[in-house]
UniProtKB/TrEMBL annotation:
The chain crosses the membrane at residues 29-55, 90-111, 123-141, 172-195, 216-238, 258-276, 283-307. This is ABC transporter permease. InterPro entries: ABC_transporter_permease (IPR051393), MetI-like (IPR000515), MetI-like_sf (IPR035906). The lineage of its organism: Bacteria, Pseudomonadati, Pseudomonadota, Alphaproteobacteria, Acetobacterales. Gene3D superfamilies: MetI-like. Residues 86-299 form the ABC transmembrane type-1 domain. It is found in: Cell membrane. Pfam families: BPD_transp_1. One of its GO terms (cellular component) is plasma membrane. The gene is ycjO_1. Keywords: Cell membrane, Membrane, Transmembrane, Transmembrane helix, Transport.
Length: 311
């Protein structure tokens, strides 16, 4: 009987302790409440609704009609515009991301030399990352690369007659690549932080052994920066796949000329808000999710072969 009473008292003490822990964690959940509402109401909920709509025909005017895998079959086997937009997007990603990271690393190494006014230069170089995806910058870019734009005016000073860069299907995409590279500030700041973490003793010891700056870069700097390169490459590839505003503004929503700037996201936008094929646009969105997820998975699987951590 005494043992039963002791067990009952122990159980009651545990319940009181658990109750106190729940009350102690309540303020934390209250602070998290806005984020939880945003995540479930504005992110997870719409994402699941989009997944459901991807299996339907839906035009915003009538109720969704079940279509099964018809949208996905059309994407893979009969939509030539899908493959064209995918080609344009992959070209943009392959050109923009490596060049942006190389440029960002180069600028970061210059700033890491301890020049005067570092904070001012860092803010100036970071500014394009804040403004580059805006409508205003896209409009400015369109004016710079138009037939009578600033670039052609500068070329005319040296006797060169430049084309309308954004109206030429051979050059239109490259103007967007240049705009993407110009937004190098964000990876530059991350590279600069990584460079500051490399011990200077390694450079001093290698200098005593006769290592040149080039050898130090490839034997010390790059290997120790591989975690930063890995992180930056994933973030920048995802951002490149999601690029939309510059292509929309510069091509005036058409993806022209001759679909040369038809980014995947722009094609998705056309299907959703120009042709009101919401079910098909939802399927396109989920295909993009799978493409990005596949790239991320491959990146993590390959990271063990070239990313070097301290241990």
């Amino acid at each position: 009987m005494q043992i039963a009473a002791a067990e009952t008292g122990w159980t009651a003490a545990r319940k009181r302790k658990a109750s106190r822990k729940r009350w102690a964690s309540l303020p934390g959940y209250l602070f998290l409440l806005p984020w939880l509402i945003g995540f479930f109401g504005l992110t997870l909920g719409p994402a699941l609704a989009s997944l459901a709509l991807s299996f339907t025909h839906f035009d915003l005017m009538t109720d969704p009609r079940w279509a099964g895998m018809a949208n996905y079959r059309r994407i893979l086997f009969s939509d030539t515009k899908f493959w064209e937009s995918l080609r344009v997007t992959f070209t943009y990603v392959v050109l923009t991301v490596p060049l942006k990271l190389a440029f960002a690393l180069g600028v970061a190494m210059v700033l890491n030399k301890g020049i005067r006014g570092l904070t001012i230069y860092r803010a100036i170089f970071y500014l394009p990352s804040l403004l580059g995806a805006s409508v205003a910058i896209a409009v400015l870019w369109r004016e710079i690369f138009s037939g009578t734009g600033l670039l052609n005016q500068l070329l005319a000073l040296v006797g060169i007659q430049g084309p309308s860069w954004i109206a030429n299907p051979d050059t239109a995409l490259y103007t967007l690549v240049v705009l993407g590279i110009w937004q190098f500030g964000s990876p530059m700041i991350i590279f600069l932080a990584g460079l500051r973490q490399i011990p200077q003793d390694l450079y001093e010891a290698s200098s005593l052994d006769g290592a040149s700056p080039r050898r130090q870069f490839f034997r010390i700097t790059l290997p120790l920066l591989t975690p930063i390169i890995f992180f930056n490459s994933i973030v920048q590839v995802i951002d490149a796949f999601k690029a939309f505003t510059p292509a929309f503004i510069i091509s005036e929503g058409t993806g022209g000329p001759v679909n040369s700037t038809l980014f995947y996201t722009l094609y998705l936008f056309q299907e959703a808000f120009s042709f009101f094929r919401m079910g098909y646009a939802s399927a396109l969105a989920w295909v993009l999710v799978l493409i990005i997820a596949g790239f991320t998975a491959v990146s993590f699987l390959s990271a063990r072969f070239w990313v070097h951590y301290d241990e």
